[in-house]
Structures are given as structure tokens and as C-alpha cells.
Please model this.
Amino acid sequence: MSRARLVLPARIKSQLPEGESHELVIRRGFEQCLILYPVVEFKKVFSKISGLNEFNEEYRKLQRNFLSGVVTVELDNNGRFLIPKNLLAYAQIEKEALLVGLGSKVEIWNPAIYEKQKMSDPGELSKLAEKHLNE
Model:
């Protein structure tokens, strides 16, 4: 498979910012998935990453690896876009892909790998929510 054509679901497409709905950015996720951003959202992330001090070795490593393989894709009139082969290989996406909306971005997963990432213990989710969302 050299590239895969994926359809962006209508409910996700309708949430894209006006005027930027035909251009998206894909990067490798921290886990074994792909992250899909509207251009306007990726620019916010890029601004943070590129604004790091270039004289700090750790920052350079973060910049280099975070931005490695970032690609801009365009939606066609049917809401489809192409994912390059190297990104498909990274996420081990072959025939099926699962899209998970996360507010300003979308994760693209191999469904089997996603299942392994999900929490099986509802108590773990409760503890994370208490730790990070309790005010």
C-alpha cells in the first residue's frame, strides 16, 4: 500500500474552522497513532515547538522528533484525504482505521492497537479524572 485514502466523517468535517476546511496536517502521535489537525490548530502547536530555545539540546531533540514526518494534506470534495505510506507504517494501519476526536484534533489508529490503549479499569479513569479535572 503506497497511500491510503481516508474519509473524514461529516461530523468531524463540520467542526473544522471556516476557510481552512480543505487543508489538514498529519504528524506521528506519541503513541502508535497519527494526529490530524486543522491547519489553524497545528499552527498553535508549531508556534510552541518552534519557539523553544535552539541552544538547548533537549529542546532541539524535541523539535526534531516532534516535527519529523509532518505532512499537509488536502480534503477533496468528498471529504477524503491521502495518508502517506511512511505514516501508515508508523501507525500500522493496513485495511481499517479508527478515528478518535479529541476536540481540536483527531487521532487515527489501527483498531487493534487502539483497543490495547484503552483503560479496562473504570477506576483508573476515575482516578485520572480526579487528579487532573478536580478543582
